[in-house]
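Blinded run. Sample ID left blank on purpose so nobody reads anything into the name before looking at the predicted structure. Input follows.
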Amino acid sequence: MRLRYSPTSPFVRKISVAALELGLAERITRVPTNPWDPASDIAHDNPLGRIPALVLDDGSGTVLYDSPVIVEYLDALAGGGRLLPAAGPARWAALRRAALADGIIDAGIAVLVERVRRPEAYRWPEWIEFQTLAITRGLAGFDAELTQLSTDAPGIAEIGLMCALDWLDFRGIGSGWRDAHPALVAWHGQLALRPSFAGTLPKDPA
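Blinded prediction complete.
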């Protein structure tokens, strides 16, 4: 399989962590991709021009996007039920929490784009505040359900939250979360020791 990726993308990192947890990492070839580059050919694999995109190795030419679909595919490829419950209330809870983690990342990216990509004269402080509040509420939502999150068998929700927290730190967005949520910090610290997380931290390209 070929994964279109960037070392700074929290959504790509979700795939990397999932592949390591499932023992599938060696089956994936990573293809460096900068979706911001006008010359990038990522639109051939994902019409939206976004990463991650996973080109399957089954001879069908199928490309999967984005991260929730790819994580579920990898889980099924590994036998199913390891990162995502197959059915019932547990499945819906996992999917809801995974969506909340993705929403935190989306809000963070909106802040980053406003601060970095948009010319200073056109930046919208109210929009930054709106997205920052979304991050704050999202983290509070996880804090309220922390006892229901695993510290030794991460699933799709735990992977998403870990990637969101590390990316917020990496980009310096929502930096007050550690002071506001000590229990979340402790939870994060336990999972951060796992090789799948410790070895995939976001980093700027060399």
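Unblinding after everyone has recorded impressions. The first strand starts at residue 2 and ends at 5.
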